[in-house]
Every structure is written in C-alpha cells, then in structure tokens.
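Page 47, continued from p. 46.
Same chain as before, 265 aa.
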Amino acid sequence: MFIKRILSGIVLVGVIIASVLVKWVFSIAVLFFIIAGLYEFFTMMEKKGISIYKYFGIAMGAIIPLSIIFRFELTKKWELFFIVLLLLALITMQLKRRQSTGVVADISTTLFGILYISWFMSFLIKIRCMPGGIGLLAAVLLITKLGDIGAYLIGVRFGRRPLLPRISPKKTVEGSLAGLAFSVIGAVASKPFLHFNYLHLIIMGIIFGALGQVGDLSESLIKRDCQVKDSGHILPGMGGILDEIDSLLFTAPVFYFYMSAVLLY
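Result:
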C-alpha cells in the first residue's frame, strides 16, 4: 500500500507540474479534478440515502471553472448570481417529485457539494491567472501538499497520540505537528515566488498548513458520516480524487484573497 501510494503521488505531482506551466492545460486539469471530486461526493451521498440530482450537480459544478476559464460573467457578481439560479433550479426540480420528504437535505447537499468542491477548487485557476500566477500557484501547492506529505510520513512512522479519533482514527498529534513543520518548509522554499521576509513566510506556512489540515479533516468527517474509508479508488493506494484535493479546498480560496489583499491585485 505504501509503495502504491508513493507511485501514485509521483504520477500525480508529475501531472500537476507539467500542467502548471501551461495555463489552459492546468485549467483543464482542475476541471477534471472538480468533476471527478463531485462525482465521488455525490456517489457517497447516494450511498448515505440522500436523493440528489448527481449529473445535474456535476454539470452545474463544471460551469463555475468554465466561467473562469472563458472569462464569462453576466454580472460583476456572476458567481453569486449563479448560486441563486442554481438554488431556484433545484427547488423547481424538487416540485416535480411525488414525495416531499427529505427536500431540505437533498437541496442543501447538492448545493453544498457544488460550493465545497467546485467553487473552492476553482480558486486555483484564479490564482494561476494572477500576475506571477505560476509562482503563486507553486507556493500554495508546496505549502499545502508538503504538509500532507509530512503529516503522512511522520504520522505513520512516529505517530502515537490520536488527534481526533472520532473523525479520523489514523491521524495523530505527531503527524499534525510534522505537517505544520513541512508546510513551513514549503513556505520558506517559496521565497523566490513570494518575495516576503522569512518571518512572514513562516507565519504563512503555519496558517495555510493548518487550513490544509482542516480541509483534510473536513473530508474525513464527511466520509465518516457516509461510513466509507475512501472517497473513491481511482488512485492506487491513495483513494479517490477528493482524498487528494481536500486539503486544497480551504487553502486555495484563502490564499487567493490573501494575495489579492497583500499584493493589491
């Protein structure tokens, strides 16, 4: 399992590095991750017994990154306008059902999946489109994914004290602290891209490393609720796509807004 996980990780990192250099290739890669992540999420919800419009949700989720890629905006607040239209569409579709039980759960779950996966993940495309986007994207990926690697490697080898056993029995305090340390290393290694002083970078590493771990735990909480071990099986030894992008779902949007404020973009 460990070897499969390492090999899958190498392939995944290789694909990401190759795609980052070309904007449209990276955008297509993110679109794929979003669609695959939505499919896994909605499949888990179906297993839980929630009646959702899976393929409608996936199609609507794909519109958000596509609107960014093609710079399509009907209004200045296009994304919020889209969410309103989506909510109206979901309510209208529910009116056609014969049974009225579970309506709130069905609508809320579909909308949550689109926001949680599609909207949050789409911020990676926005980061790539910023001035100096390649460097900024490299920074957020280094900080987040090095944290994942550190937490896994140290947690497996030296982890003793459970972090949150109710949510994820295998995550440990030692792994969590190591993840933060690796995220700080990733932030410091990003100095050529970010041009901040070392204290600023260390603080960023801690903050975004912690956000990445919250993203990981949030997906673990969802899986625990659905009583599944992995979100999918597309990556040997690593689980599903959602298992690999979960830590980015919180770091990407916060990083984008932080950089917009600090760099005045």
